[in-house]
């Protein structure tokens, strides 16, 4: 009672908004506002700077990886030397016949003849493959002399791109200058890089093999993890009773999402390869392993999205006699889908960039052909980048950066598609 | 009293007049250990609108939700006693809850149209229950339901617009149209006007008048004037028990219980 009496009898002086103490408080408030704004802008600026540096670095290093240097070499395709005739190279066994012929030696000799002693060193070891292709496409060339644009060897390629650096071989540089003056060297778009697979020669490598490997692996991951993840999330949120078992499952899923990816690789090795005897290095196994890793991410994102669907929508549907399954598939799932897709993007993007678990299941092997299907040997983009970055040959430096650009484009394409799908579903109110 | 005796009681008590659409006998509802409803017996009949009134937390909404088993969705809820629809025990093991909810429709406190078009909102129920054999049939049902809900003239030109873009009062009438589109026998309304302005409230009340007789209606309201305006029977709940139940006109002019009188005269609430 005393306290109450005091409170009511205390005379309060009117607040003086212009007193120095009040003015100081206002100044401090403004200062902390400014500080916070500056700190936020600074943080964004720094992240933008790093992103710009990364992109600029990759583009500078990698852009030349999409171009190749070619030299013009006249070759006389003498059927006697090649031990070939028209019938053999048009017949069904043309490939074997050409492989057995001395086409590679003839190409090297032609280069020597064209550029003088050591000329063969200016042409890529795999240059004869291009001669073979031309010959297969046009058998009439046999017995004639024709000029071929052949891929240059790495040293000449780097010299042409001005990237030889301090290790430049003066002979190669001189040869390049001579050829340039004669118009016998050119730099063109490297279609082989976009259509070929791995090779030991950096001028002949292609990214298509790894790209297709990534594509198939991601498809397997999506097909396995999306339905299982969404169904798990729906069951846990809409059907499962709340008890110790569901709590345990929830904790386990949260922990799985935080498990280092290499552990999933070991799991994949033990279960899919050693126990189930699936093929090594195959996109199927890679996709399954990455699906294990992606599942918890989709389940967690899915549960959150389902939780966010207002309960009034469920009540409304139940109230007019919709069955629980109808409530879930007609109302809850469509409303939760944008959120589920966001989680899926995050999980898939992480899976796309993953290297460690795939090394464990043998996807780091040297694969010189694009995979045919889910069970043929393959590699994926990040592993290919990892492998090339390990190579000593200078020619691989630009190929590594070029592969990173391809990986980033893949990632952007995948996310763009997911965002498009998400917006489509969101537009249905 | 066992279940059979209860059933017997239901039948003998109502032999004199038409059997009420729904009856509740000695209903107890528990949320876990907490008892929310104690021994409530009430009838909901075809001809009269039955209003449930009472202060907040008195259990009137809980009781309403036992009538179409919406409490089933609350895991800890447990219902005892007998509730019948046309003499059939709705908590019997053979009862199909989905069909029950189609026969006993519900309108909620907050308007909750589906985030779909106006047309789809009304068409959804008939579609899942297979009530329309063709698109033309469905069109007829949708138009009829919207007309009966007094919304047709306001929305007929924009049936493809989102149901959530309507005003609050229109949304609630859309929800009523959605409920009557499945042709229920009973409509339960859980404070349908508490989120609406007076004009929208008046429209809903007119609508309740118009629907009376066609459907058995039970309405929960915390607004006594509304109960007096729309209902013929009133049940007053307090602390989970049914204090008084009778004709609305009697209860408002001549309440039997002091607690009812105190509530109606605004002594508490």
Description:
- The complex is a heterodimer of chains A (about 425) and B (about 270).
- Chain A is mainly alpha-helical and about 425 residues long.
- Chain A is built from 19 helices and three strands.
- Chain B is of the alpha/beta class and about 270 residues long.
- Chain B has one domain (about 5-265): Rossmann fold (3-Layer(aba) Sandwich).
- Chain B is built from eleven helices and ten strands.
- In chain B, the strands form two sheets. A six-stranded mixed sheet of chain B has the order 6-7-8-3-9-10, with helices on both faces.
- In chain B, helix 4 crosses helix 5 (about 135-150), helix 4 (about 120-130) packs parallel to helix 7 (about 170-180) and helix 5 crosses helix 7.
- The model of chain B is unreliable at about 10-15 (pLDDT under 50).
- Classes of the chains: A mainly alpha (about 425), B alpha/beta (about 270).
- The interface of A and B includes residues 317, 319, 320, 335 and 428 of A.
Q: What is the β-strand count of chain A? A: 3
Strand order of the largest sheet of chain B: 6-7-8-3-9-10
What oligomeric assembly is this protein in? heterodimer
- Please give the radius of gyration of chain B in angstroms: 19 Å
CATH architecture of the largest domain in chain A: Orthogonal Bundle
Strand order of the largest sheet of chain A: 2-1-3
Number of helices of chain B: 11
**Secondary-structure element pattern of chain A, one letter each:** HHEHHHHHEHHEHHHHHHHHHH
CATH fold topology of chain B = Rossmann fold
Poorly predicted spans of chain B: 12-16
Strand segment count of chain B: 10
Q: What is the arithmetic mean of pLDDT of chain A?
A: 87
CATH superfamily of the largest domain in chain A: MetI-like
CATH superfamily placement of chain B:
P-loop containing nucleotide triphosphate hydrolases
Q: Strand pairing plus helix content of chain B: what structural class?
A: alpha/beta
What's the Cα radius of gyration of chain A? 32 Å
């Amino acid at each position: 009672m005393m306290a109450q009496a005091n409170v009511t009898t205390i005379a309060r002086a009117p607040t003086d908004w212009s007193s120095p103490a009040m003015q100081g408080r206002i100044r401090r408030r403004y200062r902390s506002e400014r500080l916070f704004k500056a700190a936020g802008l600074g943080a964004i600026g720094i992240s933008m700077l790093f992103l710009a540096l990364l992109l600029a670095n990759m583009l500078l290093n990698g852009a030349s990886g999409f171009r190749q240097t070619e030299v013009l070499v006249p070759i006389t395709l003498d059927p006697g030397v090649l031990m070939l005739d028209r019938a053999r190279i048009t017949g069904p066994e043309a490939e074997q016949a050409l492989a057995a012929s001395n086409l590679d030696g003839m190409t090297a000799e032609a280069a020597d003849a064209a550029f003088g002693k050591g000329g063969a060193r200016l042409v890529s070891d795999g240059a004869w493959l291009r001669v073979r292709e031309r010959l297969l496409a046009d058998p009439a060339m046999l017995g004639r002399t024709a000029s071929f644009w052949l891929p240059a060897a790495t040293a000449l390629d780097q010299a042409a791109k001005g990237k030889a650096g301090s290790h430049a071989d003066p002979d190669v540089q001189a040869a390049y200058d001579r050829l340039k003056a004669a118009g016998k060297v050119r730099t063109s778009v490297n279609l082989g890089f976009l259509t070929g697979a791995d090779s030991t020669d950096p001028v002949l490598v292609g990214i298509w093999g790894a790209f297709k490997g990534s594509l198939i692996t991601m498809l397997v991951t999506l097909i396995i993890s999306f339905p299982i993840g969404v169904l798990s999330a729906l069951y846990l949120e809409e059907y499962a009773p709340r008890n110790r078992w569901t709590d345990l499952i929830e904790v386990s899923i949260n922990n799985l999402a935080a498990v280092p990816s290499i552990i999933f690789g070991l799991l994949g090795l033990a279960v899919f390869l050693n126990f189930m005897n699936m093929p090594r290095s195959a996109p199927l196994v890679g996709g399954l392993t990455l699906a294990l890793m992606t599942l918890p991410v989709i389940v967690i994102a899915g549960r959150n999205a389902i939780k966010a669907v207002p309960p009034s929508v469920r009540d409304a549907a139940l109230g007019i006699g919709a069955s629980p399954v109808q409530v879930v598939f007609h109302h809850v799932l469509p409303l939760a889908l944008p959120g589920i897709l966001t989680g899926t993007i995050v999980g898939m993007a992480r899976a796309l960039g993953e290297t460690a678990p795939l090394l464990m299941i043998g996807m780091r092997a040297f694969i010189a052909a694009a995979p045919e299907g889910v069970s043929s040997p393959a590699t994926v983009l990040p592993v290919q980048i990892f492998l090339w970055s390990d190579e000593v040959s200078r020619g691989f430096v630009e190929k590594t950066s070029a592969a990173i650009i391809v990986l980033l484009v893949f990632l952007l394409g995948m996310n763009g598609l997911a965002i498009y799908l998400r917006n489509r579903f969101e537009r249905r109110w | 009293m066992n279940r059979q005796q209860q059933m017997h009681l239901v039948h003998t008590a109502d032999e004199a007049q038409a059997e009420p659409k729904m009856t509740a006998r000695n209903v107890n509802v528990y949320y876990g250990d907490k008892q929310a409803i104690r021994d409530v017996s009430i009838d909901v009949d075809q001809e009269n609108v039955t209003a449930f009134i009472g202060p907040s937390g008195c259990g009137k909404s809980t009781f309403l939700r036992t009538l179409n088993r919406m409490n089933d969705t609350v895991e800890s809820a447990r219902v005892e006693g007998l509730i019948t629809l046309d003499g059939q025990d709705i908590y019997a093991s053979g009862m199909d809850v989905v069909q029950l909810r189609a026969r006993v429709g519900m309108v909620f406190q907050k308007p909750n149209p589906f985030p779909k078009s106006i047309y789809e909102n009304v068409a959804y129920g008939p579609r899942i229950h297979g009530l329309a054999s063709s698109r033309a049939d469905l069109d007829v049902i949708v138009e009829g339901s919207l007309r009966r809900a007094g919304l047709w003239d306001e929305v007929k030109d924009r049936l493809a617009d989102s149901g959530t873009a309507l005003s609050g009062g229109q949304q609630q009438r859309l929800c009523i149209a959605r409920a009557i589109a499945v042709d229920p026998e009973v409509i339960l309304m859980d404070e349908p006007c508490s989120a609406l302005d007076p004009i929208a409230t008046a429209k809903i009340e007119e609508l309740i008048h118009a629907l009376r007789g066609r459907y058995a209606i039970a309405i929960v309201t915390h607004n006594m004037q509304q109960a007096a305006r729309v209902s013929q029977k009133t049940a007053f709940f307090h602390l989970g028990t049914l204090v008084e139940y009778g004709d609305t006109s009697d209860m408002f002019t001549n309440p039997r219980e002091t607690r009812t009188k105190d509530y109606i005269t605004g002594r508490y609430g």
